[in-house]
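Obj.: predict assembly geometry.
Materials: sequence records (below).
Method: joint structure prediction, all chains together.
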Amino acid sequence: MNHTGAGVQKTEVSGTHQLIENKWCSLRQMEIATEPSNEKETNGEKKEIKVLLVDDEPFICDLLSRWLTSEGYLCTTSLSGESALELLAKETYHLVLSDIRMPGMSGLDLLKIVTKSFPDAAVIVVTAVDEQKTAIKTLKSGAYGYIVKPFDKSEILVNIANALERRRVTLLMREYECNLEWSVQERTAQVRAREEQIILRLLSASEYRDDETGAHIRRIGMYSSVIAQALGWDSQTVDDIRLAAPMHDVGKIGIPDRILQKPGQLTPEEFEIMKKHTEIGGCILDNSDIPVLRMAQEIALSHHEKWDGTGYPRGLAGEAIPQSGRIVAVVDVYDALIHKRVYKPALPEEEVLSILSDGRGKHFDPIILDHFMNLLPEMRRIRTQIREE
Ligand SMILES: [Fe+2]
Ligand SMILES: [Fe+2]
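Observations (raw structure tokens):
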């Protein structure tokens, strides 16, 4: 350790000792003057404050320990950075007062480790006059203060009080931010759960009349979210399509039973009426400022559009069809063909995949179909997970 203050040599430990003691004594009156304001703290919280004093010079450790203990702090001393870390690992300290220049681990190294691994501890560094540049560097590295040798008791106490106050405010802010983040997350999750519940209620109303099962609409949501993820959508939008895609046929609520529940093929006139479910769904979900409902509206309107422009209701082609609608187009056909319906048996997967491949670049967006094919194992897993009731 370098105790060199103005004109004091490193080897003159006893001289330094005297210098510190003298300065301390000459300031006793000042300390006494400050005592009334400290008294309350001494009888209160301060007694609980644990300070770790790190200096390779036992005398400095003893001196600081005596000063601080008399002020009500609980002091532990350590003669090296290494042993200070061992103590910090075992116990929580509010404050670390560390010398910079020590054999082995320097105070700067100790500061860096404490700031990273024990962020609740405030660190004050103690430095010789000729190390002021280092001192400034330590402030940038997270020190709460620095004290220049030779120091006196009042400097130490003022620095400690400032550091502890800053630490208190920092911890409060950290806790506040953490609580705020937690409550925002909790609130978002609550809102999401409500949205999900409302959507499921709306869907269960339409399920009463439709041949399509609850399992089908849940699978459509899951398949769609898997493809959206593969397309690089952000996690929120991926979750939106999981909830929005099941609403693709919500407009069927406006289609008469004689058409909706007809067991055989529809006549051309009946099919024209059936096609209206896209626009009815679009109207039901129109003008919402909730993102998931806006996406659901887009899907309801566009899931029967075809890549080559021969779909309905608007005959959109290529990328003019919203991507969400292009995703649902693929997974809706896949799921409808592979499962049994009142008007048709279930088809073997091989046949379903061949129908889908025939529609590549005609009915289906080729890129989305390729993603779907690559993700087939995942699609099969969803089918096993969500079976027909
Ligand atoms: Fe549909
Ligand atoms: Fe469907």
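Conclusions so far: Strands lie at 50-54, 74-78, 95-99, 122-128, 145-149.
To do: check interface contacts against the pulldown list.
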